[in-house]
Amino acid sequence: MRQALCDLPGHELVKRLRRKEISAVEILESVRGRIEAVEGRAPTTEPYSAQPADLERVHAYITLSLDRARQQAEAIDRALAAGEDPGPLAGVPLAVKDIFCVRGTRSTAASRILQDFISPYSATPVARLEQAGALTIGKVNLDEFTFGSSNESSAFLPPPGNPWDPRRVPGGSSGGSAAAVAAGEATISLGTDTSGSIRQPAAYCGVVGLKPTYGRVSRYGLIAFASSLDCPGPVTRDVTDAALALKVMAGPDPRDATAANLPVPEALGDLDQSAPKLRIGLSPDYFRLQYPEPSTGGLSERPVDPEIEAAVRRAADLLSDAGHTIVENVPMPNTRYGVPAYFVISRVEAASNLHRYDGVKYGYRYPGEVADLRELYRRTRGVGFGLQPKLRILMGMYVSGEEYEKDYYQRALRVRTLIRRDFERAFDPHGDFRLDCLLTPTTPSTAFEIGALYGDTVSMQYVDLLTVPADHAGVPAVSIPAGLDGRGLPIGIQFIGPDFSEVRMLQAARAFEQATEGDEWRRIQPRVVAAASAGV
Amino acid sequence: MTGTSPGFDRERITSEIFSHLVELAALELKADEAEYLRHELNGQLNAIHELENIVIDDQLPISSHGVPYHGATAAGLREDVSEPGSLADDILNQAPQLEGRYVVVPDIPHRELE
């Protein structure tokens, strides 16, 4: 089957472009055609009532910037014609999660409070991707300020649909990112991960989602949620593209003091060269999950979806057959505290970060009469913020209040130490396990239906149960597709590695990709793509 | 799991505490929003209740972020040099209300000094 340009991975596009078999403008036109076929009506902040057609479309983009992309594509074609190097991501269509500032474009955070904000500068990772030749197709939808795991909390509706079944969520908060890449509306996307917001939607949409080590990629120009956890990273079609995109966006940045002063590994440009034999761990604590019981305050244990567990076990078998060592029964006992600690830490940081929205300096301002500045703040924030930001601010206020701070915030930061120590023990080169990476499920289940969980903020947060520990610990993690469940929905598996070990971790992921190249499920397209390809 | 876990309290956020939080957060809420938010806050506090039951050594250090920074990885201090800004107009243009190059705000609550 001949694939459309918009369905190819970025490294393949760059290769064909450099051979002058295709032009950057042709790539852009292929993406434009796909967007017209699958996108549906544009999400807005107007009062929303769902139409049946909304549940057949993707609705990934808040803002399209096809004119900007056209200028970029023409510049690349000119550079190629002149014999110049057009860059390592030349002609690769990029969707930017609308939580990043892109100079001269609307940067909304999917919130009314920023719905008309035009950014005066570009985020460092965006500037680096554009510098490398990526074509900025537009800004994609997300949960408001990234607060959610389904993309339903966006102020811009209709919410994105999952390209495999648009009645289901694409995950979140980088839901627009994963949906756009899966649907061929972009080839790579720049997302952010605070509790799993890159990896969980990647798993739900059958694409690759990489959360780098905290500090590997600059946060400059990222609209902040929880600053000690927020991590920019790529969503891509395959592992090779994730490595290429990371190589471009990573590295020190004088504008972000948390960007680590470490060189970017050259090996990200060629994962297949000298791929080592790895020690890969499995932990029972990633298969037996603890959920809170709202009626008693206790916990109940539920297993991960059996089809997802089977996909992880099969991956371990294939990696073992390929010569890697599988280490079973690695204890990660504090995994269960990841979500409770996150409920505290992320809310305190969110409440602090959201105080800047006040109707004075930028963004929405309540237009009616007000008695004084305090009333302006209250009314602006009351109208401008949706329910989820309000909830996070209130929770952050409570758990950081003087009377409660020791029991909640200080305690949660100590629990974070326990979570970090689980990983240090597993990865200790002189310890009992000496792992290069852990292999786990990415999510407890596959994509759920739109409306199934939204509103129940506790159940929604527990969707991140298996992704949030890596955010607490700051370690890198990647979700890759590993098959389809009985309903034809993508299953994601996750590799987690020690600090700054992205090369090895991606080599493990790549080894799985190579071992499953011939699998039947790899030839099945998402429903909206199959329909578009058939001209439906 | 049977029975109720020790220290469990379904209604930690009373109406009074909630009103105080709303004031601190500088929010104005509709009645239905307030009801939903207070319900969810109590649900979330019950979900994190188990944190209180973890035995934690007082000597255990906090982790304010996951990856430790040390001399080799921490970003160095920037050189203290001035750079002319070029974005002042772009930034000012985002302010909802301007008079010339001043940002306009309503009356700032104040008290006359005696």
Strand content of chain A: 5-15%
pLDDT under 50 segments of chain B (min length 5)? none
Helix-strand pattern of chain A: HHEHEHEHEHEEHEEEHEHHHHEHHEEHH
CATH C-level class of the domain at 5-270 and 511-533 in chain A: Alpha Beta
Total of helices of chain A = 16
Specify the oligomeric state. Answer: heterodimer
Sequence of strands across the biggest β-sheet of chain A: 1-3-2-4-6-5-12-13-11-7-10
The description of the largest β-sheet of chain A is:
11 strands, mixed
Shape of chain A: globular
Radius of gyration of chain A: 22 Å
Average of pLDDT of chain B? 88
Q: Give the number of DSSP strands of chain A.
A: 13
Major sheet details of chain B: 2 strands, antiparallel
Radius of gyration of chain B: 24 Å
CATH superfamily of the domain at 5-270 and 511-533 in chain A: Amidase signature (AS) domain
Please bin the fraction of helical residues of chain A. 25-40%
Tally of alpha and pi helices of chain B: 3
Overview of this structure, please?
The complex is a heterodimer of chains A (536) and B (114). In chain A, 35% of the residues lie in helices and 12% in strands. With 536 residues, chain A is α/β, with parallel strands linked by helices. Chain A has a domain at 5-270 and 511-533: Amidase signature (AS) domain (Amidase signature (AS) enzymes, Alpha-Beta Complex), CATH 3.90.1300. With 114 residues, chain B is mainly alpha-helical. Chain B has a domain at 9-55. Chain B is built from 3 helices and 2 strands, in the order H-H-H-E-E. Chain B has a two-stranded antiparallel sheet. In chain B, strand 1 (98-99) and strand 2 (102-103) form a beta hairpin. The model of chain B has no long low-confidence stretch (mean pLDDT 88). The interface between A and B is large, with 87 and 64 residues.
